[in-house]
Amino acid sequence: MIKIILYILLAIILIALAAAGIHHYRVALKNARTMSAYEKEKITYNNNLGKVLVVYYSLSGHTKEIADKIKELTNADIYEIQTAEKINTTPWFYLTLRNQIKKGEYPQLKEPLPALEQYDVVFVGGPVWCGILWQHRFPLTSNKLIFWAKKSFRSQRREAMPAAF
Q1: Helix (H) / strand (E) containing 34
Q2: 92's torsion region: left (phi>0), alpha (psi -120 to 50) or beta?
Q3: What's the distance, Cα to Cα, between the start and end of the chain in Å?
Q4: Is 17 helix (H, G, I), strand (E, B) or coil?
Q5: What pLDDT digit, counting tens, does each position of 133-162 carry?
Q6: What is the phi/psi pair of residue 80, to 5°?
Q7: pLDDT tens digits, residue range 109-135?
Q8: Alpha-carbon distance 31 to 29, whole Å?
């Protein structure tokens, strides 16, 4: 009797797994059809931005990937923001960051920012922590400042990259 119940239970589990697999496959096909409506021709990019600087902060390397791509496309100078003290990703990492952001107390930089006024366009990138856009005090200049942010999860590595890039 127990054998029959186990076989029935196994059959139910296999049917449920097959149904879930079929469902995920159908959803993926539907999403692919829906997104294909938004596909356009690849954008050609001509670099007429003038002198460009890419300034970024990247703790895990995800934002660095985007910064390197922008540098490659714009022939920009690049500057990685580094803190004087190493930031450790401890369990209380986000609590410390949230308190620093609330108080406006940012970590000291290892080196000062380059002179932004000598650039026509400055791309500034950083992460999103605790749902708050990473920020640093950038002096207001007549330059065009273009900010981007990268939010990542350890299990998901999708890049927050503009379509032109």
Answers
A1: helix 2-36
A2: alpha
A3: 63
A4: helix
A5: 665 556 555 557 777 666 544 433 333 333
A6: -95, 125
A7: 888 888 888 888 888 888 776 666 665
A8: 5
